[in-house]
Amino acid sequence: MGISNLMLLLCFIAIGIGIPSFHADAAAEGGRWQSNYRKVIDVEGGPESVVWIVQLSDLHFSVHHPDRALDFKRIVGPTLSFINPSLVLITGDLTDGKSKDLLTMKQNEEEWLEYQNVMEDVIKKSRLDKSIFFDLRGNHDNFGVPVIGGSFDFFSKYSINAQLGRNKNINSVTLQTGEKKHLFVGFDSTMAVGLRGPTNLFGHPTDELLAELDKELSQWDSQSTEPVTKISFGHFPLSFSSQSNSGKSLGDIFLQNSLSAYICGHLHTRFGKNLKRHHQLTHHFLSKFFQFNVHQDSYDSILNCSTDTKEFWEWEMGDWRKSRAMRILAIDRGHVSYVDIDFKLGGKKTIIVPTFPLDSRFMSTSSTHRNYRCQKINFLSYETVRALVFSASPIVSVVARIYDSSPGVLSLIFEASMKLVENSSRGDLYVAPWNYKAFEDPSPDRFWLQIEATDIMRRSSLTDLRPFSINSLNAKLSWTWREFLVMGCQWAALYYPLLWSTLYFMLTILLIPKAVLIFSKKQFTYLNFVADKGFINCIGWLLQELCKVPIVWFGILIYLFYLITFPWFIGRVFTDGKDKGYMTYMGWVVKSIDQKGKHEYIGSPDIMVTVLSHIFYVVLPSLLVTIALAAEKSIYREYFLSLSGKKVDDYDQEQSTSLVNDQGSEKSRSYIGKRYIRKVLLVVILTICWKHFMNCKALLKAYEMNPLIHFPGYSFTIPLLLAYAFYKTRKV
């Protein structure tokens, strides 16, 4: 994902310039929208009731980190050989596309050659058919690619999809076992015009892509008598996917097509291990911007068996880059489950995937809960505990254990040997009969499942303990604040509200006190505040002090209007470095590949990593610290005048001298006299300037710019204003 520039997450929190428009969505229509790839695979062999696939993501093969590709070659091929999946999905960021200092982000053909060679080796060692491998673009695979199919679009040359002629934006595969169908639909939502990073961070599904995706997901709706399990896979989480021009989103398409799960990558495990999200159809206004926990809503207390719940799970899987992660996803009689495997310590000899009962934290759904209560499910699928066991060595025993947590400690209440299902030619499915009704409970996390497998070498492998709920209640799980910021916030929807509210706040700070000074007799001073320590007096005094440093006040005001109305900088946005574009708060404006027009305002909301970082970490703190400098000068001035015995304005000698006593203890007066507050503010100024310098350094490296030529206003205005403010407030 390259999220290091994401201002450690707020800050991917947080719009102009009128030129005739050539929108990025229009560019997508030219070369990317043809008929999509569609295939049906008859899965042969047993167990017939289960299919499983492997997902890998965010490989980030890099010329600067050869260990990523070496570990992939060493571990993945042999592991796939004994897992024997029906599909292998690689969901983006195949290569890194970054310089050694991480600041320049564009395509590197050497990394793509390495990816091609490693994948050929993995396919050979796995003994799997190459046609079951599907790879997707991630944002790193699109850094600096001006046009799909062009000379710098190495994905279209070296990827598995490209080698097999799967060069469309959407690929769908149906795994068919008997009468059951399992539909997998992958899509590429990267920018049609790929900018260099860091302003290439979001998925950009167009209206055309969403229409095609809807068509692929509904392809079996009128043809299959059995329910179809639908899985979609892509690179970007929905929190990092923008809406189309018409306001539609990927979530809208998934909900209306009864998707079971959307699996993706992009975020990496650095933000947390609970990057999972349960989506339900809701009309709450805030749902456009936030979801505060893994589960969106509680189940309705009133049971309605006649209505269907529109919902789906979103499961981000982590990364190979640092976490060496692999996911096995299984569909067992309609029940979708997964296990994420960590290969940081090397390969695994045995891997266990429990397929039933499901983990109540990440896999339970309200529709299954409703169907269970309404007796609308096939209870035959509830009569056994089931698990897939993959091993490089023969397995001699598999044991299922269930623990009861209600006493306050885990108490073993069920233990049974699991038997291998006959006709397990594709993989080993183990089952153990049980009385599932004995485990019905209003608590979704009372009972915990663990499965142990022992191979012929007496090596034992244990699954993690996982809670389950037979009646499909979900165990509530809260995100950490970092997990919430990357999964629970819809950044595309939040960008403009955060940006404009902050700009309006700063303009209010500047303009209202100035208007009061000009048009009102009411004056707010430090002496007023000392006499009447009210909130209004405090705020009025602080804000009016800045107005008394006119060059700084006008400088900040002009700078804010500059940020709103003019380009911030001019830089090279493509890999070849030939063509330049300019960036505003609304996006980049660059020439089209044929030089006949312009792509206007592409890279929005991706530019928020630059825009909001500058606003929140540089501009706003600079405004606040200049206010503090002016206020500190005012305090020191009154302190100095009171000691010297001079009168100030309409205050007599007695009032001025009494100020010394009002300013507190001897220690407090010492702080004022030695101007310690000013020294602290100097440290704050230096910190702001350091942050601004690091931002400028990153930008000039990313887009090959000269600060004197390509972004002088952005580079020098704030440091100069801070320096002048500090100089101007040095004396009484």
UniProtKB/TrEMBL annotation:
Residues 1-18 form the signal peptide. The chain crosses the membrane at residues 494-512, 551-570, 607-631, 676-693, 708-727. Keywords: Membrane, Signal, Transmembrane, Transmembrane helix. Residues 496-712 form the TMEM62 C-terminal domain. GO terms for molecular function: hydrolase activity. Residues 347-473 form the TMEM62 Ig-like domain. The keyword Signal applies. This is Metallophosphoesterase At3g03305. InterPro entries: Calcineurin-like_PHP, Ig_TMM62, Metallo-depent_PP-like, TMEM62_C. PANTHER family: HELICASE RELATED, TRANSMEMBRANE PROTEIN 62. It comes from Ziziphus jujuba var. spinosa. It comes from the Eukaryota. Pfam families: Ig_TMM62 (PF24384), Metallophos (PF00149), TMEM62_C (PF24394). Residues 53-269 form the Calcineurin-like phosphoesterase domain.
